[in-house]
Amino acid sequence: MQTTNKKVRILNLILILITLLAIGSAAYLWFENQAKNTTHTHQEPQVSSPVFLTLKPFTITLPPSEDNLDINKILYVGMVLRVEDEDQKTVLLEYLPEVRSDVLLLTSKQYVNNLKKESGKLELQEQIKTALSRQYDAKHSVKIDEVLFTDFIIR
Prior knowledge:
By secondary structure, the protein is an alpha+beta fold. 52% of the residues lie in helices and 22% in strands. It contains 5 helices and 3 strands. It has helices at 2-41, 86-94, 96-107, 112-115, 118-132; strands spanning 51-62, 73-83, 144-154. It has a 3-stranded antiparallel β-sheet, with helices on one face. α3 packs antiparallel against α5 (118-132). It is rod-shaped and about 120 Å long. This is Flagellar protein FliL. One of its GO terms (cellular component) is bacterial-type flagellum basal body.
């Protein structure tokens, strides 16, 4: 009877160890699977820092308005262009004379009455963004994300 009791105890011990190993394996696999799922769901897209190109300020003589009351008005405007990456900034720097010329020609067509209003300034920003977001040569195109005015004085 003593040997039967020992056999039952050993058999119970073996069954308990097998059960513990099975539970441990199942828990390990479950946690591994959860870790893989959370890694995929919590991946945040890389946020790159903004890239800015500061243009030297422009001094532009504005055309007279329709009512001819604002003759010889001058606009002093400084701006910063925000682009996606350093490559686009490099392209703009390589073509800086063209960029400055485009901005100058576009700004010199603006009327004082429009630029005094916020809507006129916003429209000018959009026009500059559209004019400078283009293909500069066969290899390089640039998309301007935002035009920011840093100085804006009408005299």
